[in-house]
Amino acid sequence: MITGLLVPIVTDMLGMGIGSWTIFQMIGWGSMGLSAGMLAWLLNKSDLVGYLSRGVFGFLWGFLFGWINDIAMIFFMSVPDLNSFIGLFAAGFIFDLTHAVTNLLALTLLFEIFKRIFIRVKERYLHEIPDTEINN
């Protein structure tokens, strides 16, 4: 969750520009990290259930993150009504779908590789940190 809160600020300061959307990026990334932590017991499984749950989780968060950030655009709408929001979400649909599919592919195809890398780094450099869910 801390990463989700800090990364948007740092990347926005380094060139993307800080704006009203930054707080919504922080909310989206923090919420995603929090929900991943709460569902770690399911997402860390190495069986078919874990594989499918990671795919569904990534796909859903591709849309949720986009929708959370779309809310930041309320400040730029002349008339923030239901039709404006529907238009806003419709305009961003292809981007949200792209994020959802990319998340799904990354979490289903690359999770086990990155899990092994993080476990190796933990074992090599972080001996004093107690055992966590990542090893399961």
Secondary structure topology:
Elements lengths: L1 H15 L3 H19 L1 H4 L4 H23 L11 H10 L1 H17 L1 H15 L11
Helix pairs in contact: 1-2, 2-4, 4-6
Description:
By secondary structure, the protein is mainly α. It has one domain. Helices cover 76% and strands 0% of the residues. Helix 1 packs antiparallel against helix 2, helix 2 packs antiparallel against helix 4 and helix 4 packs antiparallel against helix 6. The chain is globular, with a radius of gyration of 17 Å. It starts with a helix and ends in an 11-residue tail after the last helix.
Number of strand elements: 0
Tally of individual domains = 1
Largest sheet: none
Using the alpha-carbon principal axes, give the shape: globular
Oligomeric state of the chains present here = single chain
- Count of helices? 7
Rounded average pLDDT: 86
Question: Taking Cα atoms only, what radius of gyration do you get, to the nearest Å?
Answer: 17 Å
* pLDDT < 50 stretches: none
In which range does the helix fraction lie? Answer: over 70%
Content of β-strand: under 5%
Give the terminus-to-terminus CA distance. 21 Å
